[in-house]
Design goal:
Elements lengths: L3 E6 L4 H12 L3 E7 L8 H4 L22 H5 L4 E4 L5 H11 L3 E4 L9 H7 L13 E2 L2 H8 L4 E3 L3 H15 L8 E7 L14 H4 L4 E2 L8 H13 L5 E7 L6 E8 L6 H11 L5 E3 L17 E8 L4 E8 L3 H16 L15
Parallel strand pairs: 1-2, 1-3, 3-4, 4-6, 5-6, 7-9, 11-12
Antiparallel strand pairs: 7-10, 8-9, 10-13, 12-13
Helix pairs in contact: 1-11, 7-9, 7-10
Length: 353
């Protein structure tokens, strides 16, 4: 099987540098092009120091990419990973898709199926005609649609950690569709590499804070879209993101009302049935997830506990926001699109301690 030549557009950021690490170790991918607007002309190892001394990678020169160059880039690579801001990513994705490339977009530009919802959340979309061909890149829930897909919308980190534990319960009819609350805590790398006061060590290291609450966070509509599909009915959630004093990782807990006659064992059984394939581990009774157990891993951990006093299930999900929450999941979705095993070339065991 021929190796796919890969380009990473936005390679200097956290998700881009994580993709550099993962593409380098993938047996079917070769890193051919790296691009980053602000660092164009520099060697990759000058910007992403983890590539120092890595032959064939560190000496790659970061290029400036413009969508008008898409056809030229298509002569050099087979697949492009986009780690760009919203809207800018859509312009690049359209140009690269039209040039015949397979595109994996890590922005939110093609995750939502409704143009109206997208534009209400993010603003005008430059290529809404591609909504119909884009596939939401959560393999555990969209495996059939991903087969052969040429435009993959890699899910957000908050949505992945929220959707994975709740979707099996809604699909199996174990919980009520109303009143769902999701509480999520994320490491500061989720904000990206651009410096900001809120992510400065003295500001972030000793506290934990909520932000963009009460429906203000853009990922809320993405969570609602996918959980509505799982439930077979439109639903809303209360989503509260929080910044935690750690670099990587997300822990999300969904609270849902357990329906009469349903049990905690039913929840685990539903998740294990749904996640027979993929990169989700369903933890045993009494084992609660920890972000350290998935640090650097392409896997997600989900677990369940029921507070019988109030008939409420706690649906818990832990993942590495830069791995299963972004770059590793992007490659997992590409693996499925290409007919390769989900875990092909991906690390399943976390770095510990």
């Amino acid at each position: 099987m021929a190796t796919l030549r890969a380009a990473i557009i936005g390679a200097a950021g956290y998700t881009g540098s994580e993709l550099v690490r993962l593409v380098h170790r993938h047996p079917e991918l070769s890193l051919a092009v790296v691009a980053a607007r602000d660092n164009a002309g520099k060697r990759l190892d000058q910007v992403v120091r983890s590539t120092l001394g890595v032959k064939g990678v560190g000496e790659l020169v970061l290029e400036a990419f413009d969508p008008e160059q898409a056809r030229e880039l298509a002569k050099r690579v087979d697949v492009a990973f986009l780690c760009l801001p919203h809207a800018a990513s859509a312009n690049a994705a359209k140009a690269l898709y039209d040039a015949g490339l397979r595109v994996v977009d890590l922005s939110a530009d093609f995750r939502l199926k409704s143009r109206e919802v997208y534009e209400k959340t993010y603003g005008p979309h430059p290529a809404p005609e591609l909504f119909e061909v884009a596939v939401y890149g959560l393999p555990e829930l969209h495996r059939k649609e991903l087969a052969g897909a040429r435009l993959i919308a890699a899910p957000g980190c908050f949505p992945t950690s929220s959707i994975l534990p709740l979707a099996p319960l809604l699909k199996a009819g174990l919980v009520a569709k109303d009143g769902i609350i999701v509480d999520s805590k994320s490491g500061v790398s989720g904000a990206g590499r651009t410096p900001g006061q809120a992510y400065h060590l003295p500001e972030a290291a000793e506290g934990i804070r909520p932000y963009k609450v009460a429906g203000a966070h853009r990922h809320t509509v993405e969570i609602e879209q996918e959980l509505s599909l799982a439930a077979g009915d439109e639903l809303k959630v209360v989503f509260t993101p929080q910044l935690a004093p750690m670099t990587r990782g997300i822990l999300s807990i969904g609270y849902a009302r357990l329906l009469p006659g349903k049990t905690e064992d039913d929840c685990r059984a539903a998740a294990r049935d749904l996640y027979r394939d993929g990169l989700v581990s369903v933890l045993d009774q009494g084992v609660l997830p920890d972000t350290l157990w998935v640090r650097g891993s392409a896997r997600a951990h989900v677990a369940y506990a029921v507070d019988t006093r109030v008939s409420t299930v706690l649906a818990m999900g832990a993942l590495d926001n830069l791995a299963k929450g972004a770059s590793a999941q992007a490659i997992q979705a590409l693996n499925v699109a290409m007919g390769w095993p989900d875990a092909h070339g991906l690390p399943e065991i976390a770095a510990f301690p």
